[in-house]
Amino acid sequence: MTKTRLDAATVVNAAAELLNREGPEALTLGRLATMLGVQTPSLYNHVDGLSGLRRELARLNAQRLAEELTEAAIGKSGVEALTALAQAFRAYIKTNPGLYLANVRASASQPPVDERLQAAEERIVRIVTAVIESFGLKGDDALHAARAWRSAVHGFASLEVSGGFGLALDCDESFRRLLEVMIHGLQAASSKAENT
Amino acid sequence: MTKTRLDAATVVNAAAELLNREGPEALTLGRLATMLGVQTPSLYNHVDGLSGLRRELARLNAQRLAEELTEAAIGKSGVEALTALAQAFRAYIKTNPGLYLANVRASASQPPVDERLQAAEERIVRIVTAVIESFGLKGDDALHAARAWRSAVHGFASLEVSGGFGLALDCDESFRRLLEVMIHGLQAASSKAENT
DNA sequence: TGACAAAACGAATATGATTAGCTAAAATGC
DNA sequence: GCATTTTAGCTAATCATATTCGTTTTGTCA
Asked: What residues in B contact A172, CB-CB < 8 Å?
């Protein structure tokens, strides 16, 4: 077991783990360096400071999520695909709460978005839209519906992991019902779109 | 116009404004002190450091939101109330993006929650639940439906202000359709609950 | 007016991010 | 295999920010 040298991926993965385990306050270059058995300035050989690290984390988050969603959707369509996608989405956020929530920020500020981040985000949109289309919606109807579906699932899981649901009411049951509501509503939207 | 002395409310309001205007990075005690024409340590007379300030901001956010929702729901019921509530919720987040998003964190960590924060959060849950009940749902059915509704609206507005909707597709129209989907789905859930 | 309490201040300290310059190890080219 | 070049890592120094302390100023009110 020889001590291998650090690389960017190792640094970013360790940062993601720290973020998930101890939350945003804990993500400090010092902590990260200790975790990796190295001095703080050495991290600058692999990431562009704290803000560069945050950019990498945003990319990692989008790529991991796209990965999970892709896998969940393979070989399914219609209601089955929509349900599988929703469950994968929620499971991802529960596994990566810190990483996921760290990337929900009031943005519209950094126009030069990372290329790989943008690619992964487009991939996510494409997967969701494709599944929605397998549901009978096309064009802008599908895009609006994809936004609705994503809002519901993202919103539920965000509130869940951030403790927004105070009450002692079963979250699994709530999620099941949310999906029922969305599927009913989308089916109605789908019928309506056909009569046009 | 004599120079009035500072108080806690002024400090917290200024912090909220800074957060909304320039985002979480910009919220620093130094910036805040400059903004208020005072030296940094003076702020400690009014708030308990940066983490105390963040607690106050969480409370302010919940109270402002509860306020807006209450006002929007007055004198309405059923679909009309649900729609008004959703629009008020979205409008609130668009007006207070920094303040709102700063309080979506992976928590479940600080058990000694501020009393006024908790009161305001309960108030929000009560308003939403009451409106859902005016829709024909009772007991746990109403609570699950309230979670669903809140997930959808919170999710939509969060994604909207954080730039999560990349495409150049009208957000107002997407929101209108999201509400249609939710209302359809909740009506279906309501009919189903009646046959029990 | 005089005493008390609250607010503000300057100075000092601690932590964390960042930069610079140096060294040693690893990769590369011959 | 050896010389050159690149790269990772280090120490030391600097900067920004949060926080504490003791003191001074400023309002309040008896």
From this structure: none
